[in-house]
Amino acid sequence: MTKGIEIITEGLELTTRGLDMQGLPELVVKVKMRSLIPAAKDLLTHLLQLNDHELFQPGKRIDYGYWPITLEARGSKRLELLELSHNGNRFVRGVTLALTFWREQTRICEHFGKIFTPPRCDQLVGISHGVLQGKPVVGVRYNPDDLMSGWVIKTDLYDGNMDALTTEHLYHLTAKRPDLTKYLALPAGFRIDFRGQKRVWFDKEVTKWH
Fold it and tell me: Could you give the 3-state DSSP secondary structure of residue 149?
């Protein structure tokens, strides 16, 4: 679908040109700062490369890595990209969170030489008391499934009682602990320990557990 399609930048707004020749609405995305323009171009290119005409309709949810975006009609011939709000309760104009999370998470995965494996932000994470309150944490990612992200994150307040763990949607964790979000796309087997000097490492034994 990318053949013959241009991406035009005017100020902080990017617009496709050429989709109308395929009977599709043009895509529009706005960013808050110029530093996000290259990432926004990558997002539009990604959508065009999906080569799925059914995506280009109002209200369609698209997972861009960890964070979802959607499309909203802007007149009769354009669709504007919106993203899930920080607390996960509605879609809002702009794609700052989606672009920021994509960039941060891919950089972490590239640093460790691992495949970018983002969970969905509506998947669940197991947490102990103190995590949402900002205490130093340890965490591990087990093999995920459709419901669970695979992540279990605890603090030193955890006493080993599994019944004391609770589950939260990842977007709640992101809202309360944005400092942890960049590590969430590391694949199963990774551990983090931020109780002193930050440590992040791969433990192959973890992937044997279900």
Answer: strand
Please give the pLDDT value at position 210. Answer: 56
| pLDDT of 179 | 95
- Whether 193 contacts 199, CB under 8 Å: yes
pTM over 0.85: yes
Write down the pLDDT at residue 160: 85
Average confidence (pLDDT) per 10 residues, the chain, 210 residues: 83 93 92 92 92 81 93 90 91 93 96 96 96 96 95 93 91 95 97 93 83
- Residue 15 makes CB contacts below 8 A (sequence gap 6+) with 7, 8, 26, 27, 28, 29, 78
Give the integer Cα–Cα distance in Å for 152 and 139: 6
| Strand spans (E) along 120-198 | 124-127, 138-141, 148-154, 166-169, 190-193
Cα(11)–Cα(160) distance, rounded to whole angstroms?
A: 54
- The edge-to-edge listing of strands for the beta sheet with 148-154 is 166-169, 124-127, 148-154, 138-141, 190-193, 199-202
Q: State the DSSP string of 42-76.
A: HHHHHHHHT--GGGSSTT-EEEETTEEEEEEE-SS
Max CA-CA distance within the chain?
Answer: 62
d(CA 118, CA 46): 16
Q: What are phi and psi of 43, to 5 degrees?
A: -65, -50
